[in-house]
Amino acid sequence: MNIIQIIPGSGGSFYCGNCLRDSKFVDSLKKQGHSVIKVPMYLPLFSDERDLSDVPVFYGAISIYLKQLYPIFRKAPAWFDHLLNSKPLMKLAAGMAGSTNAKGLEEMTISMLLGEEGEQSKELDKMADWIAEHCKPDVIHLSNALLLGLARRMKQKLNVPVVCSLQDEDVWVDVMKPSMRESVWKLMEEKATDVDAFIPVSGYYAQVAKQRMNIPDEKMHTIHLGVDPSDYSFSNASERKREIGYLSRMNAENGLDILVDAFILLKKEERFSDVHLHITGGWTGDDIHYIKEQKAKLVSAGIRSFAHFWEGFEIEHRTHFLKRVQLMSVPVRNGEAFGIYLSEAMASGIPVVQPNLGAFPEIVNTAGGGIIYEPNTPEALCKALQNLLDDQPLINKLSIEARKSVEEHFDINTQAEKMIAVYQKYVNR
Fold first, then answer.
1. Which domains are assigned to the chain?
2. What is the C-alpha to C-alpha distance for residues 406 and 46, in angstroms, rounded to an integer?
3. What is the average pLDDT score of the chain?
4. For a tag site, which of 85, 187, 224, 304 has the least CB within 10 Å?
5. Helix %, strand %, coil % of the chain (to 5)
């Protein structure tokens, strides 16, 4: 099967779960003999992926931003667009990308969702024409629902089904200005009718998307995220030093401060004097002050030397990180659609400690490789960590269950087979 994956590029400055999801599915589909071409939008594909020099970057981030804000740039000659989309400028934009959030980009989001009726209609035609000329896809797969504006034109020009992954779109949309938020959701609901099938990453998020975008059940095909177990070295967590890990972007939304505060409480007990905290996942310019605040709290508590902030988080650094921590917790404030770091941790034999929010209960209860706590407060998290650290036989049990659960429920190769089955259902119509 010939598959086109349209994927937003990443600045590569922090752990990007959606980027990893797309990358791991693509790798597995290729291993199974399918042809997959990744078409990047906004920025080149970085982090765990190779920069794809043979596929152009469409909707270059600098170009479309300027054209949205300043109409004069919409009349710029082609050579000017080529300059803006050059590798040096793209890499500069990539370094700043993580500081971009939905506030202030509402108009851009709406324009993108409008597709052929938006300000970027020429770029949409350029992408569709390039795919038509260089590829003969059986199916187009959009990385997220914020790209729904592409669907209608793609179907018109390529005459193939379009499917769309669903994961944490609400995290982007719900921080918009209240006056714009409802408009964006309404537009996403309208554009959802142009898509043949949706692939939410959890049953929890399928319900969120159904409620927000009124997607009918028959279009929903839940496929959990996964990893290749063979990529991760298993060792029983009970045989490791008592070290707690955090793997995600270091910001308030992902609850780093909740974990830091829980760790401070934990260290007040003498029996946890040997316990260390390891934090990785990267940051953006917006996160620097917040991270300084967390370090300052650790200094004030007299335990700064027990908390280690890792700068590297790409695959080689994650491998080392996952080999040493005994437990992992990412106490995301509002929950999450999945959290691929859970699969990475469990594949390595690391029990996870997650709040009773979002898809975490669904994932942990399916896996059995961790515990759920509530409410999502430093006090409750501290208690959960204490109970586990005091019970090494339980850690031993959960560690084995964690690895087994990935092999049985979250193996990316099995999940990719399910993805192909969805594609075939609509290709064969």
1. 2-226+412-427 (3.40.50.2000), 229-409 (3.40.50.2000)
2. 26
3. 89
4. 304
5. 55, 15, 30
Q: Which two tokens stand for residue 139?
A: 């199916």
With bands split at pLDDT 50, 70 and 90, how would you rate the model's confidence at 46? low
Please give the structure tokens belonging to residue 46.
């970085």
Residue pair 224/264 in contact (Cβ under 8 Å)? The answer is no
* Residue 286: pLDDT over 50: yes
User: How many angstroms separate the CA atoms of 424 and 429, rounded?
Assistant: 8
Closest CA to 332 of 201, 136, 171, 172: 171
With tokens 């054209």, the residue in question is 67
Report whether 401 contacts 367 (CB < 8 A).
yes
**How much is the pLDDT for 104?**
55
Find the helix or strand (DSSP H, E) in which 307 lies: strand 307-309
H or E element, residue 41: strand 35-41
pTM of the full structure: 0.89
Distance from CA of residue 161 to its chain's centroid?
A: 24
- pLDDT range class, residue 151, cuts 50, 70, 90: very high
Read off the amino acid at residue 41: M
The string of pLDDT tens digits covering residues 193-243 is: 999 999 999 999 999 999 999 999 999 999 999 999 999 999 999 999 999
List the beta bridge partners of residue 411: 227
Q: Which residues are CB-neighbours of 259 under 8 A, at least 6 positions away?
A: 244, 246, 277, 279, 329, 330, 331, 378, 381
Q: Which of 170, 195, 194, 197 is nearest to 181 (CA)?
A: 170
Phi, psi of 96 (to 5 degrees): -100, -5
Contact (CB, 8 A) for 295 and 304? yes
One-letter identity of residue 38: K
Tell me if residue 137 falls in helix, strand or coil.
Answer: coil
